[in-house]
Amino acid sequence: MLLQHIRSSFQKYLSCGGFDSAIVSQMQITKAVKGHITCSVVLQKENMNFLGSAHGGWVAGVVDIAGSLSVASMGLDRTGVSTDINISYLAGAKEGDTLTIDAYCRKLGRTLAFTEVEIRSSEALMAIGRHTKYVPEKIREQKIPLDELPTDETSS
């Protein structure tokens, strides 16, 4: 049920038709547990920079969205707005590479959520991102009781 909740949240990014949907159109959610989601994506030509590596702006968009989905895995239907995001780019990745994205909600406080996102290619840790979100109380009041949801879900 948690995986279903995350996929439902993910659909909002896909259906908006804007920047978010362009960033995540090829992404697949493969796992969801409380505070952690895993995704995969095959790098496409439109994700690349002129040097033939994953574009830094695209990577930042992935950190934003995956971090938001990790907040949703804490039982939230909406995840607030970004207040801070930073990315350390550690290695490149080329077109056709399959990337694994692990996003963690490290803390969901009274008004802020703190996330970390790791993006890996088959060869290396490509990027580490940190993303802070403002989560207003009215959003937190709509929280889904996680004790009603399974704690581990994986799809193949």
UniProtKB/TrEMBL annotation:
NCBIfam families xref list: unchar_dom_1 (TIGR00369)
All copies of domain Thioesterase, residue ranges: 52-123
Organism listed in the record: Dimargaris cristalligena
Family: Belongs to the thioesterase PaaI family.
InterPro entries reported for this sequence: ACOT13, HotDog_dom_sf, PAAI_dom, Thioestr_dom
Domain of life: Eukaryota
Descriptive protein name: HotDog domain-containing protein
Keyword vocabulary terms for this entry: Hydrolase
GO MF annotation terms: fatty acyl-CoA hydrolase activity
